[in-house]
Amino acid sequence: MRKALILPTKYVQGEDELLNLGYFVSTFGQSALLIANPDDVNRVRPQLDATAKKFGIHFVEGGFNGEVTREETKRLQQVAAENHTDCIIGLGGGKAIDASKVVAEGEHLIIVPTIAATDAPTSHSAVLYHADGSFDDYAYFKQSPSVVMVDTKVVAAAPVRFLVAGMGDALSTYFEARATHNSYSRVNASLPMGSREGLTEPAIGTYAALALAELCWTNLKADGLQAKIACEANLVTEAFNKIIETNILLSGLGFESGGLAAAHAIHNGMTVLAGTHHYLHGEKVAFATIVQLVMEDAAKSELEAVMDFCASVGLPLTLADLGVTEISFEEALAVAKIACIPEESIHSMPFPISEEAVANALIVADRIGQDYKIRNGLA
Ligand SMILES: [Zn+2]
Question: What's the gap in Å between 169 CA and the centre of ligand 1?
Fold first, then answer.
């Protein structure tokens, strides 16, 4: 049986960690192409100037137009070539980070997330879009980022909604990895660049990745609420540190090397529900996790624990919490149809999948969430 695990070369996290960015640039050379939204650069300008001076390096600001397209990443590659930069830095939220992965093509890459809203920073993959914002393709690179660096003070200063959404993304990690483990399905860590031709069977996950995924859920239950309160005060505490590591490192390794299953596929299907469009990835993934638990008839105590956690930090429990006040069976089936396309991770569940069963679970999960809210005086 083949198994695979993929990791960034180095992960560093701490207060004022950005002041060490110049050191990591200096391990590659003297200059770095900085891919970031100008607003995000301005938020950390003093730290960038200080670290550049301290370590004798310089940043070439490439800007970023906000969408990860083939044109924009090609433009940035040209800027890197013209300036002979020694490494690439992706700084900011999800899109700038993904763009930097495409530009770097798996080499000499430093990722600096300034929010903890998703678990994408550590992975060796990115999502490409067309200029109109529609999906283009998934891209996989030969290696994960060289360095993933998190300045906890910068993340604590960002809006708390991002941290909570990141907890929603991390919430799904254990349940999806557990399902993938039980079905012996392949994991993203086994996906090579380009064609899989010539390789033997796809690899399944390691026990290491499953353990990291389980630690996500343990940490969220223990410290999710305390971390949220710290972020509301824009202050770093040890609970906050633990949740930053959970959202970015543990969930990142857990999803990529432990596997995705129903929750992320249902999230993708929910894009057909117009009401959800203003909600963040992790907010939708949290509710989709409840749907997955209904599909697999998880123990009542586990379902209650997940709902208790969501209620405590303010993650969605119902479709109405995601802007969908009513859902017909036909609409639920439309969600299920997309969730169940052959390439989707939902087929990593350890039992056969039908569109009807997914639609039913979506509607029933919504009712269970409504019931929970009434029982707990939240409705
Ligand atoms: Zn996710």
Answer: 5
